[in-house]
């Protein structure tokens, strides 16, 4: 686990802002193309995966973050799709799922790093 290092809350905030920007960009592209079957969330999820792989390879944190992010994403999708159009519901749910995943990832990676160094 040589690539694993603790995540700062500042870095988490920057990554979160970038992912929300990518969600907004994906929303805009899908809206302009008027094709709700396109995966508007793909750029944000790919960017998050790239960030994890390049900077913070904490597998326990990643596993827990994936579960938390997916749970929030699917719960919000079920809640928002009846009230909003599919494109908007997908973008908002993805952003919220990324938020949950990043918070869990940051907390767990900091705890794991603290256990190794403490």
Oligomer: single chain
Mean pLDDT: 89
The number of helices is 4
Which regions have little confidence, pLDDT < 50, spanning 5+ residues?
A: none
**Apparent shape:** elongated
Structural class: mainly alpha
Number of strands: 0
Helix percent reads over 70%
Calculate the terminal CA-CA distance, rounded to whole Å. 17 Å
Radius of gyration using CA atoms only: 15 Å
Q: Which strand-content bin applies to the residues?
A: under 5%
H-E string: HHHH
> Main beta sheet: strand number and arrangement?
none
Write up what this structure looks like.
- By secondary structure, the protein is mostly helical.
- Helix content is 79%, strand content 0%.
- It has helices at 9-33, 42-55, 59-80, 86-117.
- It is elongated and about 50 Å long.
- The two termini are 17 Å apart.
Identify the notable features of this structure and list them briefly:
single chain, 118 residues, mainly alpha
Summarize the structure.
The chain has helices at residues 9-33, 42-55, 59-80, 86-117.
Task: Break the fold down into its secondary structure elements and pairings.
Elements: H1 9-33, H2 42-55, H3 59-80, H4 86-117
Helix pairs in contact: 1-2, 1-4, 3-4
